[in-house]
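Re: your question about AMP-binding protein

S., sorry for the slow reply, the queue was backed up all week. Below is exactly what I fed in.
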Amino acid sequence: MLDLGTSFLASVSRDPRALAIVDGDTRLTYAEWYAVISATVAGLDRLGLKPGDHLVTVLQNRLEAATLHWACQFAGIVITPINWRARPDEIDFAVADAEACAIAYEPVSAESLRASEGPGRIPRIAVGMASNPGETAFSDLATGESAPAKPRTDAEAISLMLYTSGTTAKPKGVPRQHRAERAAALAHVAQNLYGRAERTLGVMPLYHTMGVRSLLAMSLIGGTFVCLPRFDVASALRLIASERITNLYLVPTLYHDLVHHPDFPTTDTGSVRKLGFAGAPMTDGLLARLTEAFRPDLFVNHYGSSEVYTFTVNHEAAAKPGSAGRAGLNTMVRIVPLTGAPDATAAPGEEGEIAVIASGDEAFEGYWRRPEATAKAFREGWYFTGDTGFADADGDIFVTGRVDDMIITGGENVSPVEIESRLSLHPAVSEVAVVGLRDERWGRIVAAFVKRSGGVDAAALDAHCRAGGLPSHKLPRRYVFVDEIPKSPVGKLLRRQLVAGEYVAETPPETPIKGPAAA
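Result:
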Protein backbone atom coordinates (compact mmCIF):
# COMPACT_ATOMS: atom_id res chain seq x y z
CA MET A 1 0.00 0.00 0.00
CA LEU A 2 1.30 3.48 -0.86
CA ASP A 3 1.83 6.13 1.77
CA LEU A 4 -0.43 9.13 1.24
CA GLY A 5 2.31 11.49 0.09
CA THR A 6 3.18 9.10 -2.74
CA SER A 7 -0.53 8.66 -3.39
CA PHE A 8 -0.92 12.41 -3.91
CA LEU A 9 2.12 12.47 -6.22
CA ALA A 10 0.41 9.79 -8.29
CA SER A 11 -2.68 11.99 -8.48
CA VAL A 12 -0.60 14.95 -9.69
CA SER A 13 1.03 12.73 -12.29
CA ARG A 14 -2.33 11.45 -13.59
CA ASP A 15 -4.32 14.66 -13.47
CA PRO A 16 -2.01 17.70 -13.21
CA ARG A 17 -4.52 20.08 -14.83
CA ALA A 18 -7.66 18.72 -13.16
CA LEU A 19 -9.38 21.02 -10.69
CA ALA A 20 -8.41 19.77 -7.23
CA ILE A 21 -9.87 22.23 -4.73
CA VAL A 22 -12.20 25.21 -4.63
CA ASP A 23 -12.40 27.65 -1.73
CA GLY A 24 -14.34 30.78 -2.53
CA ASP A 25 -12.58 32.48 -5.43
CA THR A 26 -9.50 30.24 -5.14
CA ARG A 27 -9.35 27.39 -7.62
CA LEU A 28 -6.25 25.18 -7.80
CA THR A 29 -5.36 22.32 -10.11
CA TYR A 30 -3.48 19.33 -8.73
CA ALA A 31 -0.18 20.70 -10.06
CA GLU A 32 -0.86 24.14 -8.56
CA TRP A 33 -1.94 22.69 -5.23
CA TYR A 34 1.14 20.48 -5.07
CA ALA A 35 3.31 23.59 -5.29
CA VAL A 36 1.44 25.14 -2.34
CA ILE A 37 1.68 21.88 -0.38
CA SER A 38 5.42 21.71 -1.08
CA ALA A 39 5.90 25.25 0.20
CA THR A 40 3.90 24.35 3.30
CA VAL A 41 6.13 21.33 3.98
CA ALA A 42 9.16 23.65 3.81
CA GLY A 43 7.40 26.01 6.23
CA LEU A 44 6.75 23.20 8.69
CA ASP A 45 10.43 22.34 8.46
CA ARG A 46 11.29 25.91 9.47
CA LEU A 47 9.11 25.47 12.55
CA GLY A 48 11.22 22.48 13.50
CA LEU A 49 8.53 19.82 13.09
CA LYS A 50 9.79 16.29 12.47
CA PRO A 51 8.25 12.99 11.34
CA GLY A 52 6.12 11.57 14.14
CA ASP A 53 5.34 14.98 15.68
CA HIS A 54 1.68 15.93 16.17
CA LEU A 55 0.23 19.10 14.67
CA VAL A 56 -3.11 20.01 16.26
CA THR A 57 -5.45 22.02 14.01
CA VAL A 58 -8.53 23.96 15.16
CA LEU A 59 -9.82 24.89 11.70
CA GLN A 60 -12.92 24.92 9.59
CA ASN A 61 -13.04 23.33 6.13
CA ARG A 62 -10.90 25.73 4.16
CA LEU A 63 -8.02 25.56 1.69
CA GLU A 64 -5.41 25.97 4.45
CA ALA A 65 -6.83 23.08 6.49
CA ALA A 66 -6.81 20.73 3.50
CA THR A 67 -3.31 21.92 2.54
CA LEU A 68 -1.97 21.25 6.04
CA HIS A 69 -3.53 17.80 5.91
CA TRP A 70 -1.64 16.90 2.74
CA ALA A 71 1.58 18.63 3.83
CA CYS A 72 1.61 16.47 6.95
CA GLN A 73 1.27 13.35 4.81
CA PHE A 74 4.43 14.30 2.92
CA ALA A 75 6.35 15.40 6.02
CA GLY A 76 5.42 12.40 8.16
CA ILE A 77 3.75 14.67 10.71
CA VAL A 78 0.65 13.32 12.48
CA ILE A 79 -2.12 15.80 11.78
CA THR A 80 -4.47 15.93 14.77
CA PRO A 81 -7.60 17.94 13.91
CA ILE A 82 -10.11 18.91 16.59
CA ASN A 83 -13.45 20.70 16.52
CA TRP A 84 -13.09 24.39 15.67
CA ARG A 85 -15.72 25.04 18.37
CA ALA A 86 -13.51 23.45 21.03
CA ARG A 87 -13.47 25.08 24.47
CA PRO A 88 -10.17 26.17 26.02
CA ASP A 89 -10.06 23.08 28.25
CA GLU A 90 -10.69 20.83 25.24
CA ILE A 91 -7.81 22.45 23.36
CA ASP A 92 -5.58 22.01 26.40
CA PHE A 93 -6.56 18.35 26.61
CA ALA A 94 -5.74 17.67 22.94
CA VAL A 95 -2.41 19.50 23.09
CA ALA A 96 -1.36 17.62 26.23
CA ASP A 97 -2.74 14.23 25.26
CA ALA A 98 -1.18 14.27 21.78
CA GLU A 99 2.00 15.93 23.06
CA ALA A 100 1.53 18.35 20.20
CA CYS A 101 4.54 20.16 18.77
CA ALA A 102 2.52 22.90 17.04
CA ILE A 103 -1.06 24.15 16.66
CA ALA A 104 -2.91 25.91 13.84
CA TYR A 105 -5.97 28.10 14.44
CA GLU A 106 -8.12 30.73 12.73
CA PRO A 107 -10.32 33.67 13.77
CA VAL A 108 -13.30 31.50 14.70
CA SER A 109 -11.20 29.50 17.19
CA ALA A 110 -8.89 32.33 18.31
CA GLU A 111 -10.78 33.27 21.47
CA SER A 112 -10.73 29.72 22.84
CA LEU A 113 -7.11 29.20 21.89
CA ARG A 114 -5.96 32.40 23.59
CA ALA A 115 -7.87 31.42 26.74
CA SER A 116 -6.17 28.03 26.81
CA GLU A 117 -2.83 27.31 28.44
CA GLY A 118 -1.16 24.52 26.45
CA PRO A 119 -0.77 26.25 23.05
CA GLY A 120 1.34 29.03 24.58
CA ARG A 121 4.24 26.62 24.94
CA ILE A 122 4.38 25.41 21.30
CA PRO A 123 4.64 27.09 17.86
CA ARG A 124 1.34 28.53 16.66
CA ILE A 125 0.18 28.95 13.06
CA ALA A 126 -2.35 31.72 12.46
CA VAL A 127 -4.62 30.96 9.50
CA GLY A 128 -6.54 33.68 7.67
CA MET A 129 -5.43 36.40 10.07
CA ALA A 130 -2.45 38.47 11.10
CA SER A 131 -0.12 36.63 13.43
CA ASN A 132 0.73 37.78 16.94
CA PRO A 133 4.32 38.06 18.16
CA GLY A 134 5.86 34.62 18.37
CA GLU A 135 3.40 33.14 15.87
CA THR A 136 3.69 32.27 12.18
CA ALA A 137 1.06 33.34 9.69
CA PHE A 138 0.06 30.55 7.34
CA SER A 139 0.48 32.97 4.44
CA ASP A 140 4.18 33.23 5.37
CA LEU A 141 4.46 29.49 6.05
CA ALA A 142 3.26 28.52 2.59
CA THR A 143 4.89 31.16 0.37
CA GLY A 144 8.13 31.32 -1.49
CA GLU A 145 9.98 28.97 -3.79
CA SER A 146 10.58 25.46 -2.48
CA ALA A 147 11.67 22.15 -3.86
CA PRO A 148 8.85 19.76 -4.77
CA ALA A 149 7.96 17.83 -1.63
CA LYS A 150 8.96 14.20 -1.44
CA PRO A 151 7.36 11.65 0.90
CA ARG A 152 9.40 11.09 4.07
CA THR A 153 7.55 8.16 5.55
CA ASP A 154 5.98 4.83 4.64
CA ALA A 155 2.57 3.23 4.73
CA GLU A 156 3.04 1.92 8.28
CA ALA A 157 3.51 5.40 9.79
CA ILE A 158 0.69 7.27 11.51
CA SER A 159 -1.15 9.60 9.12
CA LEU A 160 -3.52 11.36 11.50
CA MET A 161 -5.15 11.06 14.89
CA LEU A 162 -8.85 11.69 15.26
CA TYR A 163 -10.56 12.08 18.60
CA THR A 164 -13.76 10.27 19.52
CA SER A 165 -16.66 12.43 20.60
CA GLY A 166 -16.10 11.82 24.29
CA THR A 167 -19.80 11.73 25.20
CA THR A 168 -19.28 9.86 28.47
CA ALA A 169 -15.61 10.43 29.28
CA LYS A 170 -12.49 12.16 27.97
CA PRO A 171 -12.11 11.79 24.19
CA LYS A 172 -9.95 8.91 23.00
CA GLY A 173 -7.27 9.44 20.36
CA VAL A 174 -7.62 7.20 17.31
CA PRO A 175 -4.27 7.06 15.49
CA ARG A 176 -4.59 5.78 11.93
CA GLN A 177 -1.83 4.58 9.65
CA HIS A 178 -1.27 5.75 6.08
CA ARG A 179 -2.19 2.32 4.75
CA ALA A 180 -5.48 2.23 6.67
CA GLU A 181 -6.37 5.74 5.52
CA ARG A 182 -5.66 4.96 1.88
CA ALA A 183 -7.49 1.63 2.06
CA ALA A 184 -10.50 3.46 3.49
CA ALA A 185 -10.38 6.07 0.72
CA LEU A 186 -10.15 3.41 -1.99
CA ALA A 187 -13.08 1.57 -0.44
CA HIS A 188 -15.04 4.82 -0.29
CA VAL A 189 -14.50 5.35 -4.03
CA ALA A 190 -15.54 1.79 -4.85
CA GLN A 191 -18.47 1.56 -2.45
CA ASN A 192 -19.95 4.85 -3.70
CA LEU A 193 -19.22 4.07 -7.37
CA TYR A 194 -17.34 7.35 -7.82
CA GLY A 195 -16.11 8.01 -11.34
CA ARG A 196 -13.35 10.27 -12.64
CA ALA A 197 -13.62 13.99 -11.98
CA GLU A 198 -16.44 13.75 -9.43
CA ARG A 199 -17.16 16.90 -7.45
CA THR A 200 -18.04 16.68 -3.79
CA LEU A 201 -19.21 19.26 -1.28
CA GLY A 202 -16.45 19.42 1.33
CA VAL A 203 -18.59 20.34 4.31
CA MET A 204 -18.21 17.38 6.67
CA PRO A 205 -15.44 18.65 8.97
CA LEU A 206 -11.86 17.51 8.51
CA TYR A 207 -11.75 16.51 12.19
CA HIS A 208 -14.37 13.86 11.32
CA THR A 209 -13.72 10.63 9.45
CA MET A 210 -16.36 11.47 6.82
CA GLY A 211 -14.67 14.76 5.95
CA VAL A 212 -11.23 13.18 5.70
CA ARG A 213 -12.59 10.41 3.50
CA SER A 214 -14.16 12.89 1.09
CA LEU A 215 -10.85 14.76 0.82
CA LEU A 216 -8.76 11.65 0.16
CA ALA A 217 -11.28 10.00 -2.15
CA MET A 218 -11.37 12.98 -4.51
CA SER A 219 -7.59 12.85 -4.90
CA LEU A 220 -7.77 9.24 -6.12
CA ILE A 221 -10.08 10.05 -9.03
CA GLY A 222 -8.92 13.50 -10.12
CA GLY A 223 -11.96 14.91 -8.34
CA THR A 224 -12.73 18.31 -6.85
CA PHE A 225 -13.13 19.10 -3.15
CA VAL A 226 -15.35 22.17 -2.84
CA CYS A 227 -14.81 23.75 0.57
CA LEU A 228 -17.70 24.92 2.70
CA PRO A 229 -16.20 26.08 6.03
CA ARG A 230 -19.33 25.44 8.06
CA PHE A 231 -22.73 24.10 7.12
CA ASP A 232 -25.03 26.88 6.01
CA VAL A 233 -27.95 25.58 3.98
CA ALA A 234 -28.27 28.52 1.62
CA SER A 235 -24.53 28.49 0.90
CA ALA A 236 -24.55 24.73 0.40
CA LEU A 237 -27.37 24.98 -2.13
CA ARG A 238 -25.59 27.77 -4.00
CA LEU A 239 -22.41 25.69 -4.25
CA ILE A 240 -24.29 22.58 -5.34
CA ALA A 241 -25.72 24.55 -8.25
CA SER A 242 -22.74 26.73 -9.20
CA GLU A 243 -20.03 24.06 -8.85
CA ARG A 244 -22.17 21.29 -10.33
CA ILE A 245 -21.64 18.99 -7.36
CA THR A 246 -22.02 15.34 -8.41
CA ASN A 247 -22.10 13.57 -5.05
CA LEU A 248 -23.08 14.37 -1.49
CA TYR A 249 -21.79 12.57 1.60
CA LEU A 250 -23.50 13.97 4.67
CA VAL A 251 -25.04 13.04 8.00
CA PRO A 252 -28.85 12.73 7.98
CA THR A 253 -29.35 16.02 9.83
CA LEU A 254 -27.72 18.02 7.04
CA TYR A 255 -29.83 16.28 4.41
CA HIS A 256 -32.90 17.10 6.45
CA ASP A 257 -31.95 20.76 6.55
CA LEU A 258 -31.25 20.85 2.80
CA VAL A 259 -34.59 19.49 1.62
CA HIS A 260 -36.57 21.54 4.15
CA HIS A 261 -34.94 24.86 3.22
CA PRO A 262 -37.17 27.31 1.31
CA ASP A 263 -34.51 27.66 -1.43
CA PHE A 264 -34.39 23.93 -2.17
CA PRO A 265 -37.32 23.76 -4.64
CA THR A 266 -35.81 26.51 -6.81
CA THR A 267 -32.19 25.26 -6.68
CA ASP A 268 -30.78 23.26 -9.58
CA THR A 269 -29.58 20.07 -7.91
CA GLY A 270 -29.71 17.98 -11.06
CA SER A 271 -25.95 17.45 -11.13
CA VAL A 272 -26.14 15.41 -7.89
CA ARG A 273 -26.45 11.79 -8.93
CA LYS A 274 -25.03 9.98 -5.89
CA LEU A 275 -26.10 10.33 -2.28
CA GLY A 276 -24.31 8.81 0.67
CA PHE A 277 -24.94 9.16 4.37
CA ALA A 278 -23.27 8.00 7.57
CA GLY A 279 -22.80 9.07 11.16
CA ALA A 280 -26.33 8.20 12.31
CA PRO A 281 -29.36 6.20 11.14
CA MET A 282 -31.69 7.89 8.67
CA THR A 283 -35.40 7.79 9.34
CA ASP A 284 -37.76 6.23 6.84
CA GLY A 285 -39.44 9.57 6.29
CA LEU A 286 -36.24 11.34 5.33
CA LEU A 287 -35.17 8.45 3.07
CA ALA A 288 -38.41 8.80 1.15
CA ARG A 289 -38.16 12.60 0.94
CA LEU A 290 -34.58 12.49 -0.40
CA THR A 291 -35.39 9.80 -2.95
CA GLU A 292 -38.24 11.90 -4.28
CA ALA A 293 -36.23 15.14 -4.23
CA PHE A 294 -33.01 13.96 -5.90
CA ARG A 295 -33.99 10.79 -7.80
CA PRO A 296 -30.36 9.64 -7.32
CA ASP A 297 -28.67 6.93 -9.36
CA LEU A 298 -27.17 5.61 -6.12
CA PHE A 299 -28.21 6.03 -2.49
CA VAL A 300 -25.67 4.59 -0.06
CA ASN A 301 -26.00 4.00 3.66
CA HIS A 302 -22.43 3.78 4.98
CA TYR A 303 -22.02 2.47 8.52
CA GLY A 304 -18.63 2.78 10.19
CA SER A 305 -16.53 4.71 12.68
CA SER A 306 -13.30 6.62 13.20
CA GLU A 307 -11.68 3.42 14.43
CA VAL A 308 -12.65 1.21 11.47
CA TYR A 309 -13.89 3.34 8.63
CA THR A 310 -16.28 0.85 7.03
CA PHE A 311 -18.38 -1.69 8.88
CA THR A 312 -21.17 -2.24 6.36
CA VAL A 313 -22.62 -0.66 3.20
CA ASN A 314 -26.14 -0.66 1.77
CA HIS A 315 -26.15 0.46 -1.87
CA GLU A 316 -29.94 0.66 -2.02
CA ALA A 317 -30.73 2.55 1.15
CA ALA A 318 -34.21 3.61 0.08
CA ALA A 319 -35.19 0.12 -1.09
CA LYS A 320 -34.60 -1.40 2.34
CA PRO A 321 -35.09 1.39 4.87
CA GLY A 322 -33.18 0.96 8.10
CA SER A 323 -30.77 -1.59 6.69
CA ALA A 324 -27.04 -0.82 6.96
CA GLY A 325 -26.38 -3.58 4.46
CA ARG A 326 -23.52 -6.04 4.54
CA ALA A 327 -19.82 -5.96 5.31
CA GLY A 328 -17.70 -3.53 3.32
CA LEU A 329 -14.86 -4.48 1.00
CA ASN A 330 -12.17 -4.59 3.68
CA THR A 331 -13.93 -6.15 6.65
CA MET A 332 -16.13 -8.85 8.17
CA VAL A 333 -19.04 -8.25 10.54
CA ARG A 334 -21.01 -10.35 12.99
CA ILE A 335 -23.56 -9.89 15.76
CA VAL A 336 -22.48 -11.03 19.23
CA PRO A 337 -25.27 -11.86 21.75
CA LEU A 338 -25.54 -9.28 24.50
CA THR A 339 -25.19 -12.05 27.05
CA GLY A 340 -22.70 -14.63 25.90
CA ALA A 341 -19.11 -15.37 24.95
CA PRO A 342 -17.30 -12.90 22.64
CA ASP A 343 -16.83 -15.63 20.04
CA ALA A 344 -20.56 -16.44 19.86
CA THR A 345 -22.77 -15.33 16.96
CA ALA A 346 -26.39 -14.28 17.34
CA ALA A 347 -29.13 -15.98 15.39
CA PRO A 348 -30.92 -14.07 12.60
CA GLY A 349 -33.22 -11.50 14.18
CA GLU A 350 -31.51 -11.73 17.57
CA GLU A 351 -30.25 -8.40 18.85
CA GLY A 352 -26.65 -8.14 19.99
CA GLU A 353 -23.50 -6.03 19.82
CA ILE A 354 -22.03 -5.43 16.38
CA ALA A 355 -18.40 -6.55 16.04
CA VAL A 356 -16.01 -6.19 13.07
CA ILE A 357 -12.82 -8.07 12.37
CA ALA A 358 -9.84 -6.26 13.91
CA SER A 359 -7.40 -7.19 11.15
CA GLY A 360 -9.29 -5.44 8.34
CA ASP A 361 -7.37 -3.11 6.05
CA GLU A 362 -9.22 -0.03 7.31
CA ALA A 363 -8.90 -0.78 11.01
CA PHE A 364 -6.85 1.12 13.58
CA GLU A 365 -4.55 -0.77 15.96
CA GLY A 366 -5.55 0.70 19.30
CA TYR A 367 -6.35 3.91 21.14
CA TRP A 368 -3.64 6.48 21.83
CA ARG A 369 -2.10 5.65 25.20
CA ARG A 370 -5.35 4.12 26.48
CA PRO A 371 -4.52 0.41 26.92
CA GLU A 372 -7.60 -0.17 29.07
CA ALA A 373 -9.89 1.19 26.34
CA THR A 374 -8.08 -0.87 23.70
CA ALA A 375 -8.42 -4.04 25.79
CA LYS A 376 -12.14 -3.42 26.21
CA ALA A 377 -12.71 -2.78 22.50
CA PHE A 378 -10.66 -5.68 21.11
CA ARG A 379 -11.68 -9.22 22.00
CA GLU A 380 -10.79 -12.51 20.31
CA GLY A 381 -9.57 -10.70 17.18
CA TRP A 382 -12.69 -8.55 16.83
CA TYR A 383 -13.41 -4.88 17.45
CA PHE A 384 -16.57 -4.43 19.50
CA THR A 385 -18.30 -1.29 18.28
CA GLY A 386 -20.61 -0.53 21.20
CA ASP A 387 -23.52 -0.50 18.73
CA THR A 388 -26.49 -2.83 18.96
CA GLY A 389 -28.16 -4.46 16.00
CA PHE A 390 -29.29 -7.65 14.33
CA ALA A 391 -28.96 -9.46 11.02
CA ASP A 392 -32.14 -10.33 9.15
CA ALA A 393 -32.79 -13.54 7.23
CA ASP A 394 -30.98 -12.10 4.18
CA GLY A 395 -27.86 -11.34 6.20
CA ASP A 396 -28.39 -7.57 6.13
CA ILE A 397 -27.41 -5.66 9.26
CA PHE A 398 -29.81 -3.35 11.07
CA VAL A 399 -28.35 -0.94 13.64
CA THR A 400 -30.70 -0.43 16.56
CA GLY A 401 -28.67 2.00 18.67
CA ARG A 402 -25.87 2.11 21.18
CA VAL A 403 -25.47 -0.40 23.97
CA ASP A 404 -25.70 2.59 26.32
CA ASP A 405 -28.83 3.94 24.55
CA MET A 406 -30.85 0.73 24.91
CA ILE A 407 -34.05 1.44 26.88
CA ILE A 408 -34.91 -1.29 29.38
CA THR A 409 -38.53 -0.74 30.34
CA GLY A 410 -40.40 -3.24 32.47
CA GLY A 411 -37.67 -5.78 31.75
CA GLU A 412 -37.98 -5.41 27.95
CA ASN A 413 -35.17 -4.14 25.72
CA VAL A 414 -36.39 -1.36 23.43
CA SER A 415 -34.31 0.29 20.72
CA PRO A 416 -35.03 3.98 20.10
CA VAL A 417 -34.24 3.80 16.37
CA GLU A 418 -37.28 1.70 15.42
CA ILE A 419 -39.63 4.11 17.20
CA GLU A 420 -37.93 7.16 15.68
CA SER A 421 -38.32 5.72 12.18
CA ARG A 422 -42.04 5.12 12.69
CA LEU A 423 -42.69 8.57 14.11
CA SER A 424 -40.68 10.22 11.31
CA LEU A 425 -43.22 8.96 8.78
CA HIS A 426 -45.93 11.20 10.24
CA PRO A 427 -46.23 14.28 7.97
CA ALA A 428 -46.35 16.68 10.93
CA VAL A 429 -43.10 15.40 12.47
CA SER A 430 -40.04 17.37 11.41
CA GLU A 431 -37.52 15.65 13.69
CA VAL A 432 -37.70 13.15 16.51
CA ALA A 433 -35.48 11.57 19.15
CA VAL A 434 -36.44 8.78 21.53
CA VAL A 435 -34.81 8.18 24.92
CA GLY A 436 -35.47 6.37 28.16
CA LEU A 437 -36.47 8.51 31.15
CA ARG A 438 -36.31 7.25 34.73
CA ASP A 439 -39.57 5.94 36.15
CA GLU A 440 -40.24 4.48 39.59
CA ARG A 441 -42.45 1.69 38.32
CA TRP A 442 -40.96 0.80 34.92
CA GLY A 443 -37.31 1.63 35.57
CA ARG A 444 -37.32 3.59 32.31
CA ILE A 445 -40.15 4.78 30.13
CA VAL A 446 -39.99 5.41 26.41
CA ALA A 447 -40.15 9.16 25.75
CA ALA A 448 -40.34 10.76 22.32
CA PHE A 449 -39.04 14.30 21.82
CA VAL A 450 -40.70 15.74 18.74
CA LYS A 451 -40.09 18.86 16.67
CA ARG A 452 -43.37 19.54 14.90
CA SER A 453 -43.84 20.84 11.37
CA GLY A 454 -47.61 20.92 11.63
CA GLY A 455 -50.56 20.39 13.91
CA VAL A 456 -50.31 17.07 15.74
CA ASP A 457 -50.74 16.00 19.34
CA ALA A 458 -49.67 13.06 21.47
CA ALA A 459 -52.86 11.10 20.87
CA ALA A 460 -52.46 11.35 17.08
CA LEU A 461 -48.84 10.23 17.29
CA ASP A 462 -49.79 7.35 19.54
CA ALA A 463 -52.42 6.24 17.02
CA HIS A 464 -49.84 6.56 14.23
CA CYS A 465 -47.42 4.29 16.09
CA ARG A 466 -50.11 1.71 16.79
CA ALA A 467 -51.20 1.74 13.14
CA GLY A 468 -47.60 1.08 12.16
CA GLY A 469 -47.53 -2.08 14.23
CA LEU A 470 -45.42 -0.99 17.18
CA PRO A 471 -46.12 -3.34 20.10
CA SER A 472 -47.45 -1.81 23.29
CA HIS A 473 -44.15 -2.01 25.21
CA LYS A 474 -42.47 0.10 22.50
CA LEU A 475 -45.07 2.84 22.39
CA PRO A 476 -43.88 6.15 23.83
CA ARG A 477 -45.39 6.76 27.25
CA ARG A 478 -44.52 10.43 27.06
CA TYR A 479 -44.30 12.95 24.22
CA VAL A 480 -42.32 16.14 24.65
CA PHE A 481 -42.68 18.78 21.94
CA VAL A 482 -39.50 20.81 21.51
CA ASP A 483 -38.23 23.70 19.43
CA GLU A 484 -35.00 21.90 18.54
CA ILE A 485 -33.48 18.44 18.92
CA PRO A 486 -29.98 18.79 20.46
CA LYS A 487 -27.22 17.56 18.17
CA SER A 488 -23.44 17.41 18.05
CA PRO A 489 -21.49 19.62 15.60
CA VAL A 490 -21.61 16.81 13.03
CA GLY A 491 -25.34 16.22 13.44
CA LYS A 492 -25.53 13.27 15.82
CA LEU A 493 -28.44 13.17 18.24
CA LEU A 494 -27.38 14.08 21.78
CA ARG A 495 -29.77 11.82 23.65
CA ARG A 496 -27.93 12.38 26.93
CA GLN A 497 -28.96 16.05 26.86
CA LEU A 498 -32.61 15.11 26.49
CA VAL A 499 -32.31 12.69 29.42
CA ALA A 500 -30.66 15.46 31.45
CA GLY A 501 -33.44 17.92 30.61
CA GLU A 502 -31.22 20.11 28.44
CA TYR A 503 -33.71 21.13 25.75
CA VAL A 504 -36.09 23.96 24.87
CA ALA A 505 -39.67 22.77 25.11
CA GLU A 506 -42.78 24.15 23.52
CA THR A 507 -45.66 25.28 25.73
CA PRO A 508 -47.17 23.14 27.16
CA PRO A 509 -43.84 21.27 27.55
CA GLU A 510 -45.17 17.74 27.55
CA THR A 511 -48.29 15.71 27.03
CA PRO A 512 -48.56 12.32 28.77
CA ILE A 513 -50.41 9.48 27.10
CA LYS A 514 -53.49 8.26 28.93
CA GLY A 515 -54.91 4.79 28.77
CA PRO A 516 -53.28 1.42 28.10
CA ALA A 517 -49.94 2.84 26.87
CA ALA A 518 -49.30 4.43 30.24
CA ALA A 519 -50.72 1.63 32.33
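Residues 514-519 have pLDDT under 50 and may be disordered. The chain has three domains: 1-6+15-212, 231-361+374-404, 406-518.

Happy to talk it through on Thursday.
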